[in-house]
Amino acid sequence: MRLSRSVASVTVAVALVLSLPYEAMPHARVRTGPPTAAEPFGATCRTSVSGSRVTAYCHNPYPGTDRVGLHIECARWWDLDSDGSPVDVGPAQTVRLTGRCWMEVRSAWVSHERA
User: pTM for this one?
Assistant: First the structure.
């Protein structure tokens, strides 16, 4: 009698597993195509203005190289604005960019470009 109960239990379990829809069955997931998220990029820059001098420190925590450049806009109309030469910031590197105006600084910013 016990044998028929265990056979019945196994038969019911097999029937339930076979009746599951295909989506509910475990299967390997294979990713096709390029990854959906873009690779992180861009150095983090801190810019400070002290009188007529500008200093920016840029640190790149990502594996790609970032090309950064310091841009300074001077407050006086006769004072020339400046765009610094681009500098490559490799992975885990920190660079210092400096520049100045003759008088006051109106604004300063750092541009980023993939190297």
Answer: 0.66
Q: Distance between CA 64 and CA 114 in Å, rounded?
A: 8
Q: Buried (b) or exposed (e) across 4-29, using 16+ Cβ within 10 A? A: eeeeeeeeeeeeeeeeeeeeeeeeee
Q: How many CB atoms lie within 10 A of CB 66?
A: 26
The bridge status of strand 44-50 relative to strand 53-60 is antiparallel
Question: Looking at residue 32, what is its pLDDT?
Answer: 54
Question: 70 is written with which tokens?
Answer: 């310091």
Count of residues making up the chain: 115
